[in-house]
Design a protein that fits this description.
Chain lengths: ~60, ~290
């Protein structure tokens, strides 16, 4: 039966949709905020970063 | 001992009050963060910075390692972030201890790693972003890897995606359109306030260096995908939540926080339509959205 009675009104059954698994990729290296993000770093990194070219900028 | 003046930074309606416990810590935030400085007000998060010797300190139990700049420890119910850099040496250059509500924290800077008589930014990235993310996780909010724009008369659009998806490209394309306010080219915050979802700019910009302290009511979310032609594909709520989660920065080691962030995203997609935007990166992408919705 494709319909059912519910509180006096006839409600159409939704068509069956077969469940499916979809993979949504995560990027852990971005999600954990581990990258250096700025080239204007203060503190002890400021001179060292530019001297040693140690940047790994993430966006 | 003289106390240094307090600094108040406001991101996504969260006020962070930062003080140094002595005048020899000269706090100077990075230039982009200065846009987010506000007048003195009651802070949501109180943070005190001080010099210290971190060579002998213990950290408690390690609960997370970012495999990069920071690790997280738990010690007597408090959280301790430990920041290290191979170029500085074995000891952390900074630690930050927070209570479990993330309403109060202390930053200790390893004195010998810093040049004397130079200003410092104790709250520099990634500590600022980590603090805001942890604070939001239990308070109906989340940070999303997205470009945010506000189109007149007040439609907040989010263009979300991981690195390389086209966020900065999209921000630059919208920059050419009159009266459009760009909140960020890389990171925005979503919060529920007064029964609405709002999107906020953050200091954590991308290559286009767009970082606005403003906000707008969120009306649509687009997940970016590069294609040869422009196309809009509506997404189911389940898929939209999954994609938002994949573009967010929640505390992965905290089960309760993860549940709350997922519940918040479910709340967001109940009222905000979400699409996959397949786009070719030129002006026609913006015209395409304009034609679809105006």
């Amino acid at each position: 039966m494709s319909t059912r009675k519910e509180q006096g009104t006839r409600v159409k059954k939704k068509p069956y949709v077969k469940p499916e698994v979809k993979q949504v990729p995560l990027r852990p290296e971005e999600a954990v905020l581990g990258y250096c993000k700025s080239t204007a770093v203060a503190g002890p990194m400021s001179s060292l970063c530019s001297t040693l070219s140690c940047y790994s900028n993430g966006s | 001992m003289k106390t240094a003046p307090a600094l108040f930074i406001r991101v996504a309606d969260i006020t962070l009050g930062i003080t140094a416990d002595s005048s020899d810590v000269e706090v100077r935030p990075q230039e982009v963060t200065r846009k987010f400085i506000v007048a003195r007000r009651k802070p949501d998060v109180v943070i005190q910075a001080r010099w210290g010797d971190l060579s002998q300190r213990s950290w408690g139990k390690k609960i997370f390692d970012s495999d990069a700049l920071w690790q997280l420890y738990q010690e007597n119910g408090s959280y301790v972030f430990r920041f290290t850099s191979p170029i500085l040496g074995l000891h952390p250059y900074k630690i930050a201890c927070f209570n479990k509500e993330f309403s109060r924290g202390e930053i200790h800077l390893h004195r010998s790693y810093f040049k004397p008589d130079q200003p410092v930014d104790p709250f520099e990235y990634p500590l600022d972003e980590l603090t805001v993310n942890h604070f939001l996780a239990t308070r109906e909010g989340a940070e999303v890897h997205a470009c945010g724009v506000v189109v007149p008369p007040g439609e907040g659009y989010l263009f979300a995606g991981q690195s390389g998806a086209g966020k900065t490209t999209m921000a630059k394309l919208w920059q050419k359109v009159n009266r459009v306010n760009i909140l960020s080219d890389d990171r925005v915050i979503l919060r529920k306030k007064n029964h609405r979802i709002w999107t906020y700019g953050t200091p954590w910009h991308g290559e286009a260096e767009i970082a606005s302290p403003e906000k707008g009511p969120l009306t649509k979310i687009f997940f970016l995908r590069h294609r040869e032609r422009n196309e809009l594909v509506p997404l189911s709520k389940t898929e939209a939540v999954s994609r938002l989660f994949a573009c967010s920065f929640p505390p992965f080691y905290d089960q309760k926080a993860i549940q709350l962030v997922l519940a918040f995203f479910s709340e967001v997609v109940k009222t905000i339509p979400c699409y996959e935007l397949r786009f070719f990166p030129d002006e026609r992408a913006v015209e395409f959205i304009d034609e679809k919705f105006f």
